[in-house]
UniProtKB/TrEMBL annotation:
Gene source species: Exophiala sideris
Domain Glycosyl transferase CAP10 as annotated: residue spans: 336-621
Highest taxon in the source lineage: Eukaryota
Pfam family for this entry, one: Glyco_transf_90
Protein's name according to its UniProt entry: Glycosyl transferase CAP10 domain-containing protein
């Protein structure tokens, strides 16, 4: 594989090693990365955990207040089926026996679990419009939105895989807005400034900011099926909304009162639509934006019993280095990530500030505690921004494409990463708390060999004990040499200068613009992340990529599992061939699956589904809006006692 990174100003806040180092020497900028088996991603990105923010509230249950509760079951059958809770993201954690011991058994079991999880996911595929609508009602507790049939036809005509779980993020993001009136949501949207508007089936950005222009182009591809609307879009790299947990809980409770499945005769599919023109007596909303680092807001957005919020010393950066404070991270099992949804949740690690600079000193900080209809490309689990496919994924820029990849047999047996020293505003004191800086240090064999001779904030005793404990003793004796042999990790720019206005928009401050290409590259991405994106429920950890925790304590064990240790370093009695074939399986599965569910058209399909829901949400008649043609046709068939009436 020859992977091009011609423009290092990628929007990529994730350490990702592109598994492929050229056999010949390359320039320090490393514009071309080639042939290595492992793509390392200390990414800080992704999946959705329902127990921490308002996902904890069982917000999709049977309709409240007894309103038309029987109708859903009448039209879907009388088997007692009830709407299920969405967003139970795949984690590969089920079935991991406590009796498993050692790296081989643990990772092998996680991979086996992931394969089962993937098969279970495929079994949920809808094969007809009526089946998709039926699944929607069961899972969401509402009728599908108007235009659902047109959306389904567009998706299937583009060979999309229709699995309702793929769209759980939409309902996680939009559900609390049902606590507000449609007029209130529209007023808030108009007051947010930069946006894309849809008018007469055409989408246009109201600014020339390149992200917004790209988003407008993506939305324009599906605008023909959408009502007029205003879509506020975040212009910053970082997410911006963190509503306190108690407020979100209240909103979710109120939103449940607006969940109903009315009789088809009471439902209309006519959406009014709206524009950026102010309505009579529209108030000006003075939105408060704080310039403080987001960590304190994150703690308030976490559940009261979560580790980040309940730990008394959660903000003490040094706690991460204390040997007696090796917190029990419940997303880990036998030293490896068994629940990637939890692993990507800032609320689950009380000392997370010691491992990610964007929480304590981001490049830009502008946070509101209000619930605002602001769309963006990525967010932390505690953010309330509405996710839409990130613009750099869709744009098709060559530097974000997989390029002319090579077969597995032609790749080198090492991990490779090149990138800039970004992720926030680092300085001489705080840099060990930045994920990229820590990862580069951990993959430097020379630095490792000198760790005992200096007071090192990267190779703390806790870090070393956690990272080395699962490794064979022969490998531990030769760690420095082994690290250097199987890692080719380096910065291309340290960005030591004081940031200026001109240098604010640089590589490494939010979503990973290159992650999709890594999946397509036929190499194995290793990903640790705090950021979440639209595609998280489509990717299975240990099936399509290898998950890693944000402390990186599992990195050495993950790498040793796949690459092993040769006789030269570990001796004849400690020689380990590794698990190259399993790595190849993951690389192949990730590449093939990305070509099916992460295409540009899949982003358009997701955006269309999201904006159909947003269009209904902001309509004054939303309580009676829906798509019910399938139910009316079924009733018509029943009345006429015939099956010859075609489906809608």
């Amino acid at each position: 594989m020859v992977h091009r990174l011609r423009d290092l100003y990628a929007k990529d806040n994730h350490l990702k090693t592109l598994a492929a180092m050229p056999t010949a020497a390359s320039s320090i900028k490393m514009h071309r990365l080639s042939r290595t088996h492992l793509v390392i991603g200390a990414v800080i990105l992704v999946a959705l955990y329902q127990s921490l923010s308002y996902m904890r509230s069982s917000y999709v249950t049977e309709p409240r207040n007894g309103r038309d509760t029987g109708l859903l079951y009448h039209f879907l059958g009388s088997n007692g089926t009830q709407p299920t809770q969405p967003l139970k993201h795949v984690s590969s954690s089920s079935g991991l026996g406590k009796s498993s011991s050692g790296t081989v058994n643990s990772i092998g079991q996680l991979i086996a679990n992931a394969n089962t999880t993937f098969e279970d996911l495929l079994a949920k595929k809808s094969t007809s419009l009526n089946e998709a609508a039926n699944t929607y009602r069961i899972k969401r507790g509402r009728h599908p939105p108007p235009g659902f049939d047109q959306w389904y036809e567009y998706a299937t005509s583009n060979d999309a895989i229709i699995i309702e779980d793929f769209f759980d993020q939409i309902y996680h993001d939009l559900e609390p807005f049902w606590a507000f009136s449609p007029r209130d949501i529209r007023d808030r949207a108009r007051n947010l400034g930069m946006h894309v508007s849809i008018l007469n089936a055409t989408a246009e950005a109201n600014t020339g900011w390149f992200w917004h222009v790209i988003w407008a182009s993506m939305i324009n591809e599906v605008a023909y099926m959408l009502p007029d609307m205003v879509i506020p879009l975040n212009a910053m790299d970082e997410p911006r909304l963190m509503v306190p947990f108690e407020d979100i809980t209240t909103f979710i409770a109120e939103a449940g009162n607006h969940r109903a499945v009315p009789h088809p005769e009471q439902v209309t599919d006519t959406v009014t639509g709206w524009t950026d023109n102010a309505e009579p007596d529209q108030p000006y909303l003075d939105i408060a934006w704080s310039q403080s680092a987001p960590l304190s807001f994150a703690r308030a957005a976490c559940a009261p019993d979560s580790p980040l919020r309940s730990e008394p010393t959660a903000l003490h950066l040094n706690m991460a280095a204390q040997p007696d404070h090796a917190q029990d991270l419940k997303f880990m099992s036998h030293g490896f990530v068994s629940n990637f949804t939890l692993a990507s949740d800032v609320c689950q690690d009380p000392s997370i500030a010691a491992y990610h600079g964007a929480l304590t000193n981001p490049l830009t900080a502008s946070t509101s505690r209000d619930l605002l209809p602001l769309f963006g490309g990525s967010k932390f689990a505690v953010n309330n921004d509405i996710l839409i496919p990130a613009p750099m994924y869709w744009d098709g820029d060559e530097k974000f494409d997989a390029g002319d990849d090579k077969d597995w047999s032609s790749k080198n047996n090492k991990a490779t990463w090149r990138g800039t020293a970004t992720g926030g505003r680092h300085n001489a004191l705080n840099w060990p708390n930045f994920h990229r800086h820590r990862f580069v240090a951990l993959t430097n064999g020379t630095k490792y060999s000198l760790a005992d001779e200096t007071s090192d904030r990267i190779f703390t005793s806790l870090q070393q004990r956690s990272a080395l404990s699962p490794l064979p003793i022969n490998l531990q004796k030769n760690m420095s040499l082994w690290i250097n042999k199987h890692n080719d990790i380096a910065f291309t720019d340290m960005f030591c200068d004081i940031p200026t206005e001109e240098s604010q928009y640089i590589d490494g401050n939010s979503f990973s613009g290159r992650y999709r290409s890594f999946l397509q590259s036929k190499s194995v991405p290793i990903k640790a992340t705090l950021y979440r994106e639209w595609h998280d429920s489509r990717l299975i950890p240990w099936k399509h990529f290898v998950p890693m925790n944000n402390r990186f304590t599992d990195y050495y064990a993950i790498l040793s599992y796949f690459v092993g240790c040769d006789e030269e370093l570990c001796g004849s009695d400690g020689k380990d061939e590794g698990h190259d074939s399993e790595a190849e399986d993951i690389a192949r599965a990730g590449s093939e699956w990305a070509e099916k569910v992460l295409r540009k058209v899949d982003m358009q399909i997701y955006a269309a589904r999201l904006l159909l829901e947003y269009g209904r949400l902001t309509d004054d008649n939303r309580e009676s809006l829906g798509w019910v043609k399938d139910l009316k046709y079924e009733e018509l068939k029943s009345v006429n006692r015939t099956d010859e009436i075609p489906d809608p």
